[in-house]
Amino acid sequence: MSKPKPPNILLLQGEDVGRHLGCYGDSAARPPHLDALAAQGKRYDQAFTHTPVCAPSRGGMVTGRYPYSLGNQHMRSTLAQPPRTFTRELRDAGYFVNWHTKLDFNFEPQDGWRDASEAWHTQPAPEQPFFLYENFHATHESCMFPEIPEWHNPPPPEAGNAHRHRPEDMRPPPWLTDCPELRTQLVRYANAFSTIDAQIGRRLAWLEAQGLMENTIVIFLSDHGRGLPREKRWCYDAGVHLPLIIRWPGHLQPGSVCDELVAWVDIAPTLLSLAGAAIPKDCQGQVFLGPDKTAPRETCFGGRDRMDEVYDRVRFARTKDWHYIRNFTPRLPWAQTQTYMENQEIMGVMREQWSRGALTEATGTFFQPEKPTEELYHAVEDPDCMHNLAGDPAHAPVLEDMRARLNTHLRDVNDLGNLSEEDLIDQGILVDRLDEYRRRITPLPAAWQMKPFPFPVTLNEYRKQTLTVFQGSA
């Protein structure tokens, strides 16, 4: 008796996409194809990336290892010795791998990691079991910049004007000033989301036309949260809590919902397990689906470090009920000057408001000159992460528990965030790219500055200005 053919895998990734879908409760969202995909498969409600920015997020996803364990946690750094991606194991197991569009792993993949990169949806499907990938760029942060031409976000032909959103229907997050500039940005994002939804609809139609729906696992996920301040690049819920939808006919109940914790480092070992491929021993994720599924994880972990020219070091631990954040550089403000983020109109509006004391308690938090060392939020009652409970004696036992979980994790994976980038370069882990980011540092107008000194890009330079303060940290 012949073995059943291994399942095909179609991995579709939205860029800078939060949980702004009807199936996740967003009444203003209009992504009909993704909502239909959720109705045909399983929606995961507790899925988290390990890094709220693209390259480290993808780099960890394709290796099944935490970026701060590999050394590629700094945005736009480059590993000197590229690690093996899970697609190599898929190819060894007999899969045809087409990774179409964006790479962006903070390393250049080793030779032989894929078979093709062309637009797979314009040609017949491979005859052998396949893994196909596509990144959908229209929702990238840059779509919300002013003066973005319409061709950046062309309306899908089949949607007409129905996908166009209105400023009055948008729901501004509580940490940003509700103003015409922000609502315009939110409309641009919502329109872009409709665009990628239509593109995804065409990819799913291609799969159906190939007659391969029944034996293909379709996965939709994002790299990190929406490209807004305190979302992308930040370890709050809006930055790391992401959509994950999986359709697998005959194996997943249509319209089902899973509330088990899933981490992005779990994607690689899970796909390898489903394909019958070997899982590398250095993989730090776990299998969350299929016959080899392990016990559900109790905690998701992650963090961020340098973002382009802006240095910081943050780590988080997340359970279903609690969201814990540790700021290893608490004397730095949240709203450091990052050139890319400053292209957003809302940043200019809020910096001007901050300079004259016009921000509210909620909107002013992100613009405070210093961060606390620890933050603790009730993830169910306060998913916006607005009420820090770390200093509340009533929650001291929870704080201690979350602190211990993170310490254990950082020790187990050998967090390299304790080392400066100069150290990583000297050890041959990273290529030296620091000068290109030092050149980007441009001070804000004096009235808008959070601190009196320009911000460095490395831990060594930061230590010349102030000291990291957290006793007993990993």
What features would you describe in this structure?
The protein starts with 7 loop residues before the first strand and ends in an 11-residue tail after the last helix. The strands form 2 sheets. Strands 1, 2, 3, 4, 5, 6, 7 and 8 form an 8-stranded mixed beta sheet that branches. The chain has a 4-stranded antiparallel beta sheet with strand order 9-10-11-12, covered by helices on one side. It folds into 2 domains: 8-297, 3-Layer(aba) Sandwich (Alkaline Phosphatase, subunit A), CATH 3.40.720.10; 303-463, no CATH class. It is built from 13 helices and 12 strands. By secondary structure, the protein is α/β, with parallel strands linked by helices. The chain is globular.
List the helices and strands and how they pair.
Layout: E1 8-14, H1 32-40, E2 42-48, H2 54-63, H3 67-70, H4 86-92, E3 96-100, E4 130-136, H5 180-209, E5 216-222, H6 237-240, E6 241-247, E7 256-258, E8 262-263, H7 267-275, E9 300-304, E10 314-318, E11 322-327, H8 345-355, H9 361-364, E12 374-378, H10 396-412, H11 421-426, H12 434-438, H13 459-463
Report the CATH topology name of the largest domain: Alkaline Phosphatase, subunit A
**Overall mean confidence score, pLDDT:** 93
User: What is the number of beta strands?
Assistant: 12
Distance between the termini: 53 Å
CA-based gyration radius: 22 Å
Outline: globular
Q: Ranges with pLDDT <50 over ≥5 residues?
A: 467-474
**What is the CATH superfamily label of the largest domain?**
Alkaline Phosphatase, subunit A
Number of domains: 2
Any idea what the CATH architecture of the largest domain is?
A: 3-Layer(aba) Sandwich
Number of helical elements: 13
In sequence order, what are the helices and strands, one letter per element? EHEHHHEEHEHEEEHEEEHHEHHHH
Strand percentage: 5-15%
Largest sheet entry: 8 strands, mixed
Helix content: 25-40%
Text of the CATH class of the largest domain: Alpha Beta
Estimated structural class: alpha/beta
